[in-house]
Amino acid sequence: MFLGAALHPGQLPLFNSPRPSSLGRIAFPITAFLLLTGLLGFIEVREPYFFSQDDNRSAVLPNMVPGCHSFWSGQMPQYNPYLGFGAPMMNRGLESYTYPPTHISYLFARFVLNNEYAMLEVWAFLHILGGFWATYFLGRYLGMRPWIATSIALAFVLSGQALIMGRSWLNFTPPLVWQPLMFLSFAHFIRGKVGFKWAFGMALSFGMFFHVGFPQLVILTLLPILIALAVLLALRFVPWRRLYWMVPAALFAAALCIPLFLQQWCLASELPQDSYGIGIGYGFLNMLVPVPLVNEPISINFLAQKPYAGQFYYFGTLFAVLAALAIFAAIVARVPRLMWLKHFWIIPLLVMADFCMGENGLTYPLLNRMGHANLWHYPWRAIPVVVLLAVIVGGLMLEGLIREKLIARPVQIGVGVLANLLLLYHATLPLPSFFDFGFKPYPPLPPELRNLVLNPDGSPNGRVWPVHPFRSTDPDYIFSLGLNFPTLYGVASGKIYDPIVERSYDYRSAISQIRREPLEAYRAFGIRWVIVSKTNPSLFTDGVAKGVDVSFLVKRLDHPSFDVYEVPDPSPFAFFPAQADAKLECSFDHGGAHIVLPASDKPRVLIANILSIPDLQAYADAQPIDITDEAWNRVKVTVPPGATKVAILYQPPWMRGVAMGGVLLVAGIYSGLRLSRKERTRPASRA
Asked: What are phi and psi of 170, to 5 degrees?
């Protein structure tokens, strides 16, 4: 009876207009916002670069800082000449160069904090604080009173998944802003508040989220919205006619997304389809009770055996308990159709929670059988949207209990204070990242290493081939120049840490050649230095590093943390095959490679020692020339007589996507105008 009353359709707030806030009610979110800002400051002072661990420190930031520096110096960061024998950069999307907050974070870190390496701290602050307001306004629009809306906002942005994944993986803090805003747009749609303004707002939320560069998160946010829409259509609450407004919204969203989508599709559509079906397994109890009262084993291998790993699931007890009670009440009360209208959020919550179970659930195996496994792997990545749905369901349950006068005011105050104190306790714990490196971003290279691998002007004098553990807590681990650290130091490397490039056909072919005939491949690809790390591995070892034979190399540097071996007679970065010993002047930037040639009145064959990948274009004295096949898949061109400069530029077809986006935008405007005209002419009785 008690729980069923809270689900009473006449009292639940979803479709009731929220009461206007008085000055006293505004005090709740403002006070919480100030406390949240102070809490983030405390976390950052206690552990500097808190949000720059794991991949953020080893893969993202070493690329983002030089990439943003290039962007604001007037050159688009299209190409990374320092990793993977030359690789795509901006069009991968993974460092979010087309996402405006990236540049806001960089400029603030560079010119206000005077520390470019702090840009991911700024990034995290922006999204956590912005996510607080986005979730608060979502709660208010759904009819929650200010203190409940404030509490669900804190529970969402300070949840364990937000802090732990956010400090490890760049792309998992933007959902704190864009998931609530997409849900808010959907709530407007449910209420019939549709039109041009709504279509633009929904498209903007979707498009901005997409430009974070991690499409899986956008799909995992759209999935529960589509499930909820299907429920409301089946219950005949949302009229089918209203779906017409989805057309301009979809066209506007496609217009925003298509330039980046086409680039990512071209790079990733032919990649192997990997399926990582590990779900959250255990851990639901840790959603209810914090560590150390409960510390269940965690199935996510990145967090296994780490102290406080169970906090990954935690988001403040109160709303987890209430969401569970709402689900229980809905099932026990045998909810009729009208009640489901008020608590339809329960259904997408159950589906997405089941998806998080991975192979142990029903949803993930079903979606995986549909293909495109890369969109579904690591199903626990859906945890952000599960937490958001849980705080919505829990917040509505609490609002229903209060409106039914089933909770006395002193109990309300006590519950609210206790819930937020538990959340504060949780947020101040030393939460782990997926991996904690032992160095601070970023130490200078040891002089003896720098003098060996770089020219006096700072340009690379050959490629390095790092042999290193995949991860290590050793402070000197970075000097093995593995992962994506070479970009930061301007060192050219044959390796790259990137889920797209590493699995591409061209790069895998190059790696296969190195494994088959290492010395010949080292020479062909211009690998001059093999750096062998002495740091103890904290995780598994890079497969290419296992069993590397250095007996045919000459040791040039014996450092306590690494050894450097020299490869005899490596090919230069640019050369004429007929004169392989003659080095040509070759420089790199984030556009490509630039080669200066001696004058000649005869055509010449030139090898540029970078991997020949799609969308590379060669120019001789600014005139296009063809790139032809070569045994090692390097760039081979025939230079016409008289040419003295050759540029090998990476030029992915961005303008094709921009043009398509323009067409879609016009189509969206046209469809929106047609719908607006029909809405004005339709009789009121049929509206």
From this structure: -45, -45
Q: Tokens at residue 367, please?
A: 């979606």
Cβ atoms 198, 675 nearer than 8 A: no
- Note the helical H segments in 404-500: 409-428, 447-453, 485-489
Summarised one tens digit per residue, pLDDT across range 388-405 is 999 999 999 898 888 888
Tokens (6 digits) for 136 = 């608060």
**pLDDT tens-digit profile of 129-185?**
999 999 999 999 998 999 999 999 999 999 999 999 999 999 999 999 999 999 999
Residues 52-111: pLDDT tens digits? 999 999 999 999 999 999 999 999 999 999 999 999 999 998 899 999 999 999 999 999
The token pair at 100 is 């405006």
132 contacts 150 by C-beta, under 8 angstroms: no
Pairwise CA distance, residues 254 & 242, whole Å: 20
Dist. CA 525–CA 1, nearest whole Å: 74
The tens digit of pLDDT for each residue in 355-386 reads 888 888 888 888 877 766 666 778 888 999 99
Give the β-pairing of 527-533 and 463-467: parallel
Q: Omega before 292 cis (within 30°)?
A: yes
* HSE-up (13 A, CA, CB side) for residue 634: 25
Burial class (CB in 10 A: 0-12, 13-18, 19+), 488: buried
The tens digit of pLDDT for each residue in 5-32 reads 445 433 344 444 445 556 557 889 999 9
Spatial contact of 184 and 133, defined as CB atoms under 8 Å apart: no
Share the mean pLDDT of the chain: 87
Encoded amino acid at 305, one letter: Q
CB 412 within 8 A of CB 144: no
- Return d(Cα 288, Cα 559) in angstroms, integer: 50
CA distance 98 to 682: 41
DSSP 636-659: EEEEPTT--EEEEEE---HHHHHH
pLDDT at position 416: 85
pLDDT at 684: 52
Query: Rounded to whole angstroms, how far apart are CA atoms 233 and 144?
Result: 24
Alpha-carbon dihedral of residues 432, 433, 438, 444, nearest 10 degrees? -150
What angle in degrees, to the nearest 10, is found between the helix axes of 318-332 and 346-356? 110
Q: Which residues contact 277 (CB under 8 A, 6 or more apart)?
A: 358, 359, 364, 365, 368, 377, 379
Name the DSSP class of 392.
Answer: H
Residue 512, phi then psi, degrees to nearest 5: -60, -40
- The answer to whether the CB of 368 falls within 8 A of the CB of 297 is no
Count of CB atoms situated within 10 Å of the CB of 301: 11
Note whether 77 and 90 are within 8 A (CB): yes
* Cα distance between residue 151 and residue 248, in whole Å: 35
| Coil vs helix vs strand at 1 | coil
Report the C-alpha gap between 390 and 325 in whole angstroms.
11
Strands 627-628 vs 623-625: parallel, antiparallel or unpaired? unpaired
How much is the pLDDT for 371? 66
What pLDDT is stored for residue 538 in this prediction? 47
Q: Which of 187, 198, 177 is nearest to 144 (CA)?
A: 187
Return the structure tokens found at 548.
């590397």
